[in-house]
Amino acid sequence: MPMTAKDIEDMIRTAIPDAEVEIRDLAGDGDHYAAKVVSPSFAGMNRVRQHQLVYKALGGRMGGELHALQLETAVPNGESK
Amino acid sequence: MSEAKERIDALVQGNDVVLFMKGSALFPQCGFSSRAVAILDHLEVPYETVDVLQDQEIRQSIKEYSDWPTIPQLYVKGEFVGGSDIMMEMFESGELQQLLKAEA
Asked: What's the Cα-to-Cα distance from A4 to each of A1, A7, A8, rounded to whole Å?
């Protein structure tokens, strides 16, 4: 089953409640998404740790039923690093 | 460590810049891998590639090795740097150039 943008957003928000999540369906096919996730929880983490936190929120779907998710993470009003 | 993880470790430790990808540098088989190759080519740094489509054990094990669910994956001097999104961000900010220059 392909995931909807809302599924992705809900899963990220559930795992990272203070996150601002913005999802775009890149190709309009329900299979290629871009996500921007901004959360104070990312503070002090490098990009790899930030992305790993989002991937964990998606509970193993990344790379499986969720094929393509371009991910951008950031701390509010700060650099993503 | 499993046999596949030992092979990955040898590749990561034995090459300054190594990209695990789908397909080859000449013929990438996925848009994200293609983007990763384009960035490295643009920076004109020597790099090795490992085609995970040719090796199912590595394809599975690399995800556990780095705790990272997707391909491509870039390693510089034994350290996991990230996937194509992180490569693009670091390229745009100039960090990737700095990192790779430091290795040259």
From this structure: 9, 5, 7
